[in-house]
């Protein structure tokens, strides 16, 4: 079932158009990977989907409801949650409080403190630890748990592995794979690690200068075509040409 539909979305910063006529849809249980170089417009797209950046035109439809003009808090309440790059958490508060605050501001649903702890078992022993004292990987797990507490239909994950150790990244993706396996949440994932993005995503979109340059199933497209799109080479042109 299609959970999120984005139609001809345009967003910018002043005179600069960062997201140009972007359209896609994501179904429940599906992972859509967004791939693109620095400045391709991925973060602006995510922020626009989450409602913290205004759309200049186009529409964002969540489970059949147009949410384009909803403010961020209403958007969380209607089912879009973002785990932002750099993950903002309440560092003076314990993990439990970070999770509970999110739960109070979201939708009601299957995700509660206990189900989040089942999905992200690494958080259980940390519940009473002040968040500011956690490692990068642990904080990232808290940020994901916090997003889940709002019972999202669509989870936006912006470079969640940035700055984490390989072991922490492995643990994080294991947890995300568990989420995916539940089949009830649509995930849109920005991931700089191309191999990781290709393995974890059911479909990928390659963004170049704000536009979708390539879209499809990663294994069908193949790594070369995705790499070419990343660097702005037409398909078939080689990087060394
Ligand atoms: P990165 O991987 O570096 O985060 P990105 O793909 O997420 O890149 P955006 O951050 O969305 O790309 O940037 C898209 C374009 O918008 C770039 O040209 C960038 O310079 C510009 N941009 C982003 N944020 C702002 C801002 N606050 N003010 C002005 N221009 C911005």
Commentary on this structure:
With 241 residues, this protein is an alpha/beta fold. Strand 1 and strand 2 form a beta hairpin. Helix 3 packs parallel to helix 5 and helix 5 runs parallel beside helix 6. The N and C termini lie far apart (42 Å). The C terminus is likely disordered. It binds adenosine-5'-triphosphate (ATP).
Key structural traits:
241 residues; alpha/beta; Rossmann fold; 6-stranded mixed sheet; 4-stranded antiparallel sheet; 10 strands; 26% strand; globular; binds adenosine-5'-triphosphate
Name of the CATH class: Alpha Beta
- Give the radius of gyration: 17 Å
Structural class: alpha/beta
- The total of beta strands comes to 10
* CATH topology heading: Rossmann fold
Helicity, as a percent range: 25-40%
Q: Biggest sheet, open or closed, and with what strands and sense?
A: 6 strands, mixed
CATH-level-2 architecture: 3-Layer(aba) Sandwich
The count of helical stretches stands at 9
Domain module count: 1
Proportion of residues in extended strands: 25-35%
Helix and strand element order? EEEHEEHEHHHEHEHEEHH
Low-confidence stretches: 236-241
Shape category: globular
**Hetero groups bound?**
adenosine-5'-triphosphate
| Average residue-wise pLDDT | 89
């Amino acid at each position: 079932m299609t959970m999120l539909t984005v139609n001809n979305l345009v967003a910018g910063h002043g005179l600069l158009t960062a997201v140009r006529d972007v359209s896609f849809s994501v179904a429940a249980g599906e992972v859509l990977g967004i791939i693109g170089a620095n400045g391709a417009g991925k973060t602006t797209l995510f922020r626009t989907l989450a409602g913290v950046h205004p759309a200049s035109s186009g529409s964002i439809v969540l489970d059949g409801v147009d949410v384009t003009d909803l403010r961020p808090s209403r958007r969380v309440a209607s089912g879009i949650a973002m785990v932002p790059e750099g993950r903002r958490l309440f560092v003076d508060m314990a993990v439990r409080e970070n999770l509970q605050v999110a739960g109070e501001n979201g939708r009601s649903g299957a995700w509660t403190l206990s189900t989040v702890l089942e999905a992200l078992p690494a958080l259980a022993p940390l519940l009473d630890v002040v968040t500011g004292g956690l490692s990068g990987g642990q904080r990232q797990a808290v940020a994901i748990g916090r997003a889940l507490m709002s019972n999202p239909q669509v989870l936006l994950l912006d470079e969640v592995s940035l700055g984490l150790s390989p072991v922490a990244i492995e643990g994080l993706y294991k947890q995300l794979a568990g989420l995916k396996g539940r089949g009830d949440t649509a995930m849109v994932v920005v991931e700089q690690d191309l191999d990781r993005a290709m393995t974890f995503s059911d479909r990928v979109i390659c963004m170049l200068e704000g536009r979708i340059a390539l879209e499809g199933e990663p294994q069908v497209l193949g790594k070369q075509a995705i790499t070419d799109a990343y660097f702005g080479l037409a398909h078939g042109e080689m990087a060394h040409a």
